[in-house]
Amino acid sequence: MNHEQAYQVCINPDCRKQFGLEQIVFNCPDCGALLDVEYCWDRVAVPKALDFFEHRWSTKGLRAEARLDFSGIWRFRELLPFAPNDSIVTIGEGRTLLEENDLLAREIGMKPGRLFLQYEGLNPSGSFKDNGMTAAFTLARMVGRKRIACASTGNTSASMAMFAHKTDPPMQGIVFIGSGKIAYGKLSQALDYGALTLQIEGDFDACLRRVRQVADKLGIYLMNSVNPFRLEGQKAIMYRVLEARGWEVPDWIVVPGGNLGNCSAFGKAFTELKELGLIKRIPRLAVIVATGANTLYELFENKNLRWNGGRYDQSKVDNLYASMDASHYLPHTIASAIEISRPVNLPKSIRALDIMNGLVREVSDEEILEYKALIGRYGFGCEPASAATVAGLHRLMEEQIISPDEQVVCILTGHELKDPDATVKYHTGIDMKKITPPPAVTPTGRCSNPPKKVADDLEAICAALGETLPE
Ligand SMILES: *Cc1c(COP(=O)(O)O)cnc(C)c1O
Ligand SMILES: [Zn+2]
Q1: What is the pTM of this model?
Q2: What integer is the mean pLDDT of 2-13?
């Protein structure tokens, strides 16, 4: 495979500026829009039919290219052909499964054989983030970056920290967490996998702004989902859903929305499959957000923001953000993975909603917890954000938008053990976070790696990274 067939391009239809793969830019320097990874498909040996990819199951192995067939992302490498095979960084991510779940279907009033759960909690780090991380690490290795960083509500950092040691030579992972909500299961992963963890005063959105600034100044590669290569990897979740269904396209894909990378990646996956003639129709998309972090719902459903061929009404976004600032709005939901008020992939998400004839619903924390327990009882243990999908599906059935005999796939984005506190509180009423913490102690383990508390200040952050702020 030859990476000259891939490039980056600004998604603004009035700009379309192109960039090479080696150029590290996340927003177009001319117009500020996000970038896509695009391919010259006529130079790629794309298989004629999707069932080609199934046969890779029989060629998987531990060495060289056979190793790629083990990965639920790189098994589909002709559909994200930006990397030479020998640059690919993989830990066997994406070996997840799709379960037809009739018990849960019955519970919410769907007919048997219609409800499917795509369980991304089975990834090595326990969430769908591994799908994107493998692709972004591959690019980081291709361009020779040594340090990578992310701001995270938890799963991005867990995944990034896990992959950091799988590159050769290993990279240094730097995680920015806010002082807001973080599930301990996820924080424990970042610490255990050895990431340098900075705990910044401020919420997720503040952390993301800060990490972008620091990454830019110090030449650190950014691993948040503003990174378009992550979305390339996440397309593979849809390939696996189709594969598990014998390449039959479902009627609906239901996914939680946080920074909106996943839904954006799904829209891109289906656009490309259709353009390549590999599928005939595109499923509909339902993005489910939490009531306490409902920016996309506000904009898409209440303010009628539409992609409009890329010429969407930015003033609707600016006005909402200005009013959030004026009221000192902070997002608030038990589903910490989607507690985000300024989703970076907002433009790409409304493009995906356009392509997939989609809609957006919001669900309350109470609903999220009820449906999480139902999914746990009849399906897989998932974390709160993932459960928003089934809660949203039930809402859409009540609204008679989804009918009981349609084929629906809910994406369970993360493993239940990521956030045991939420589950314990639901079942026992005990709030582990409110139990008085023991007095601070200095950890003494040989590999102890406690987070560093840092002020939300550029100079202080550089100092914590052992650097001085460049001019
Ligand atoms: C990151 C994450 C989400 C949100 O995905 P986006 O791509 O940011 O919209 C949802 N659920 C879980 C478990 C996550 O880790
Ligand atoms: Zn541009």
Answers
A1: 0.95
A2: 87
